[in-house]
Amino acid sequence: MSVRQEATKILRHTFVYGLGGIISQVIGFFMLPIYTRYLSPADYGVLELLLITTGIIGTIIAVGITQAVFRFYYEYEDDRDRNEVISTGVISFAILGFCSLFLLSFACGALSSVVLGSREYWPYFLVCFATVWFSTLTRMGMDYLRIREWSTIYLVISIANLVVSLSLNIYFVVFAELGVMGILMSSLISSIMFAIVLVLPLMVKVGLRFSFSKCNEMLRFGAPLIVSDVGRSIANRSDRYFIRGFGTLEATGIYSLGYRFGTIIHTFVTSPFLQIWFPRRMASFKEQDAEQTFSQIFTYFLVVLTFAGLGISVVIKDVVHIVTTPPFYEAYKIVPLVVLAYIIFSFYYHFSIALFVHKKTKHIAGIDAATSALNLILNYFLIKHYLAWGAVAATIASFLFRVAATYVAGIRFQMIKLEKTRIAQLLLCAFLVYWLSTLVDMGTPWLNIPLKSLFALLYILILWATGFLHESEALVLRKAWTNIGARVLLRAH
Questions:
Q1: Which range among 12-16, 335-339, 457-461 shows the weakest confidence by mean pLDDT?
Q2: Cβ-Cβ contacts under 8 Å for 14 (sequence gap 6 or more)
Q3: Cα separation of 474 and 1, whole Å?
Q4: Residues 276, 149: contact at Cβ < 8 Å?
Q5: Phi, psi dihedral angles at 109 (to 5 degrees)
Q6: What angle do CA 254, 255, 257 make, to 5 degrees?
Q7: Worst-scoring range by mean pLDDT, 54-63, 90-99, 130-139, 305-314?
Q8: pLDDT digits (tens, 9 = 90+) for 285-294
Q9: Which of 14, 352, 421, 462 to pair with 222, CA 20 to 30 A apart?
Q10: For residue range 408-455, what is the model confidence (pLDDT) as tens digits?
Q11: Which long-range contacts (CB under 8 A, 24 or more apart) does 31-36 make?
Q12: Is the dihedral of CA 443, 338, 272, 233 positive or negative?
């Protein structure tokens, strides 16, 4: 498949996958004034630490089965074998996950005391554990839709899940005034509903089959990914524990809100892109010239990612002042650096494919273990003295290390092509435009936001003017623009 055909296919699915994320973020954005009025910064900190802790536990009990299903589904050509992979994966997690979480439920009091400084939050952990089990089953059902590239069905179910969760959130938080527990209960109820909606029809379709040999293969493949995924969680989120330890729950809540804004690019751009990127890479890794094709597509992805990141960074101060309350205003300060961290981290998804293709998950586990150790050390020393600023610095340094180590490991098994000159060009342009935006301040958010938004468009113009596009790419864009103009004129007449 040519670069243009592959890029078109990925773009189409990315748009559909991303639409659900965009709708989710927009609704979440409009919910912020509600959450920041009904939840204090300390409540926000409690919620964040709960979700991080139970998320890490969920990663451990899943033993990498969700990633293994992707890898081994494409190992086989026969539909019966492929269906057996799906069925075996779901059954394996259902049994292992339930037993593990049942045993962990007896430790809720101890976890509450260690993580949140008080045993009074133990019911929160109990609700979260149940949510983890049902939500992981839901995720496996959604992953099957990705494997089959049924992006439209994926979008419909995502939006339905969002509507249910949002409605329950509003009821439990605003009307029932249950605070943090209300948010947790809404997540549990929606995860139960959609686990039933997705997993039962899935098991009917693929058949209730279990293969001990396939289960063993998937566990051997996925087990090292526990270290990888836990390491990623530590590298991304352990800073909240240190901020609570060296600071307060309030400081944790404010930092968490700023971090959430900074990761919008992951939800808007990276996450939907990965929904199709990973399965397409797995399906195409045997094709000739696949690396050249995907290196160009990755460059296009970075243009979109930096454009979105720049757009967020230039207006974030004014947006935070509009949508939140004064106790949360300081959250904006860390957002541009969090955006930078996640742009750096996006390179991992391009470099790690070689290790997945060649089943070198032990290398991934080793890299992530080293990254986690580095992150914990940096968090301790930097957050102890600089709190939120130290946390962001530790995150950037850890992401740089992880990306570099993954690249070095990956090229031992497969050539990894990267358009280095063009990537350097787009990053330099983004830094320049961001610096220029900091010189503008009209004194009111309502004027700053529309004016500063223009800087994101300036970024695209500078790329165009500096010859970023190859001639063939420019020709495709001109033709597309001409076709759009022609259609508009035809409709006008």
A1: 12-16
A2: 272, 273, 275, 276, 277
A3: 20
A4: yes
A5: -65, -45
A6: 65
A7: 54-63
A8: 666 666 777 7
A9: 14
A10: 988 887 777 788 888 899 999 999 999 999 888 888 888 899 988 888
A11: 31/166, 31/169, 31/170, 32/323, 32/324, 33/323, 33/324, 33/325, 34/170, 34/173, 34/174, 35/173, 36/257, 36/323, 36/324, 36/325, 36/327, 36/328
A12: negative
User: Does 365 or 421 have the greater pLDDT score?
Assistant: 421
**Alpha-carbon gap, residue 15 to 151, rounded angstroms:** 9
- Which parts of 247-360 fold into alpha helices (H)? 249-262, 264-265, 271-284, 290-323, 335-351, 353-357
- 448, 440 in Cβ contact below 8 A? yes
- DSSP secondary structure of 411-460: TTTS-----HHHHHHHHHHHHHHHHHHTT---SSHHHHHHHHHHHHHHHH
Q: Which two tokens stand for residue 135?
A: 């939500």
Contacts of 296 (CB under 8 A, 6+ apart): 3, 7, 419
Residue 31 has pLDDT above 80, yes or no: no
Q: Which of 9-13, 208-212, 334-338 has the highest mean pLDDT?
A: 334-338
| Predicted structure pTM score | 0.73
Of the candidates 38, 328, 327, 33, the residue with the CA atom closest to the CA atom of residue 181: 38
Using the structure block, give the residue that is written with the tokens 């909606």. Answer: 197
